[in-house]
């Protein structure tokens, strides 16, 4: 039976711990729990209308269909109880005004989780995860990246690359092309790593990017 997360949030706790205890979080990360999300979502007409123009601009891009399909996969598989936690604990922005010119970006707390960029008429993705989850010995050592595993999670080895940003146990993965992004998200170990990172930052408290949340994009992420 799926854990019921529609109950009143637990007092004196922050982040996902208000809705899911640590065992429920671990079970979801491992893929052994089917969480019951809220039936309804919170909404803000002000924010919904604020980003409609950007969303319509995105829809005119040649990458629009791929973006929406990948976002739907990410929303359904990588964010726990997404309806219950929408905007307050995670958000998605549309054509954010940053120097790297992303198409969309998903954030939690103060952290970027997932970003999609234009790559010609296609797309490329950037995932932030824990370095230790992609090391051959589960250590946060830069020299121990499991490159063999990464290359076998995509359709073509050249579609994946990585970088090590500042911060303890931080790791960035770039994946090029819709087919390789889908393949990457389908790998069980990858999905567990993404979920672990996302849960870590959703547990750090309220999302700092609430004002950038694009409800039109979130509609696509939470469809179905």
Main attributes?
17% strand; alpha+beta; 224 residues; six-stranded antiparallel β-sheet; 6 strands
Structure notes:
It contains nine helices and six strands. The model has no long low-confidence stretch (mean pLDDT 92). A six-stranded antiparallel beta sheet has the order 1-2-3-4-6-5. The longest helix has 15 residues, at 64-78. It is α+β, with helices and mostly antiparallel strands and 224 residues long.
Question: How is the secondary structure organized here?
Answer:
Layout: H1 22-30, H2 45-50, H3 52-59, H4 64-78, H5 82-85, E1 91-94, E2 104-108, E3 111-119, E4 122-130, H6 147-151, E5 160-163, E6 170-176, H7 178-186, H8 188-202, H9 215-221
Antiparallel strand pairs: 1-2, 2-3, 3-4, 4-6, 5-6
Helix pairs in contact: 1-8, 4-7, 4-9
Structure summarized in a few sentences:
This protein is an alpha+beta fold and 224 residues long.
């Amino acid at each position: 039976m799926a854990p019921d997360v529609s109950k009143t949030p637990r007092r004196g706790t922050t982040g996902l711990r208000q809705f899911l205890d640590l065992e429920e979080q671990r079970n979801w990360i491992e893929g052994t729990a089917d969480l019951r999300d809220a039936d309804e979502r919170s909404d803000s007409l002000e924010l919904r209308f604020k980003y409609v123009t950007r969303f319509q601009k995105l829809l005119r891009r040649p990458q629009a269909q791929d973006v929406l399909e990948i976002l739907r996969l990410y929303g359904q598989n990588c964010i726990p109880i997404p309806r219950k936690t929408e905007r307050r604990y995670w958000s998605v922005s549309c054509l954010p005004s940053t120097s790297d010119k992303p198409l969309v970006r998903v954030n939690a707390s103060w952290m970027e989780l997932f970003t999609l960029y234009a790559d010609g008429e296609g797309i490329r993705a950037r995932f932030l995860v824990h370095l230790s989850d992609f090391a051959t010995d589960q250590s946060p050592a830069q020299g121990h990246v499991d490159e063999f595993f990464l290359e076998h999670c995509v359709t073509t080895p050249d579609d994946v690359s990585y970088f090590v940003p500042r911060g303890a146990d931080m790791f960035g993965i770039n994946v090029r092309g819709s087919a390789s992004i889908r393949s990457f998200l389908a790998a069980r170990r990858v999905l567990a790593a993404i979920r672990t990172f996302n849960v870590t930052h959703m547990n750090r408290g309220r999302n700092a990017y609430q004002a950038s949340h694009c409800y039109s994009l979130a509609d696509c992420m939470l469809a179905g």
